[in-house]
Amino acid sequence: MALSYPQVVLFGDSLFQGSADVASGFSFQAALQAQVLRRLDVVNRGFSGYNTSNALSILPKVFAPPGPGVPALRYLFVLFGANDACVPLPTNFQHVPLDKFKANLRRIITHPNITAHKPKIFLITPPPLDEIRVTELDLATGHPAAARQTRVSAKYSEAVRQVAAETPGVTLIDLHKALMDRAVEMTPGFDPKKGGPALGDPAGGLRGYLKELLPDGLHLSAEAYRIFYDLVRPHVGGEWEGTRDADKAGYVLPDWREAPWLEEDAHLQGKSL
């Protein structure tokens, strides 16, 4: 039977599906794969448009319990909520009520097909929303109003924080906070401490630096994916860092200098090791 590499699985919506894209000059998935090359496989299971109810319906098809030929699930990153947070409209049916969203997240991260692998599990808050830009695009594509709202989306990010805090062994990756902090930092004159509307909220009328991080108001730019990667990077690969020969520790197949065929090659060349 062929060797299987342990896996890092990115399970989520279009924010993970798009993390494989290289057109903008940076790929979150490729950067993460380079970090764990020869040790782990980074598997993209991002599904554009999916909410947590959709995710639960396909979960047994995505994750198999441990068994012969089944790669071990070492790390699981879960990123849903951007679609669950859609407001009910006659032109959109992605909405999942907040309480059901939280229940769905719990069911995903405690599903026996996942927990049987004993992976490290990370819940990621969906990013902030630029409702000003989203409204422009949604109206242009035939929606009667914006399908997403800044204040509603923020509640779903907070729900992810709550589920992570309530679930033992689950680590939070707060993408919403990291991107909003960056946007505030790069927006001259904007002070969230004054208690006004957030960036991207039509009530305040200011997109600020969110327009650089969320070009269509929802999906991440290359810069935003770099910020995301910087959040994830310290959590992956610590098991071989600081070990003897850390540059090669954890390889599924050995370094060429240590491979078992070297002795045979040396013999054929009339050399001794």
From TrEMBL:
SGNH hydrolase-type esterase domain residues: 10-227
InterPro entries, A to Z: Iah1-like, SGNH_hydro, SGNH_hydro_sf
Domain of life according to the entry: Eukaryota
A Pfam family matched in the record: Lipase_GDSL_2
PANTHER family found in the cross-reference section: ISOAMYL ACETATE-HYDROLYZING ESTERASE 1 (PTHR14209), ISOAMYL ACETATE-HYDROLYZING ESTERASE 1 HOMOLOG (PTHR14209:SF19)
Protein name listed in UniProt: SGNH hydrolase-type esterase domain-containing protein
Origin species: Remersonia thermophila
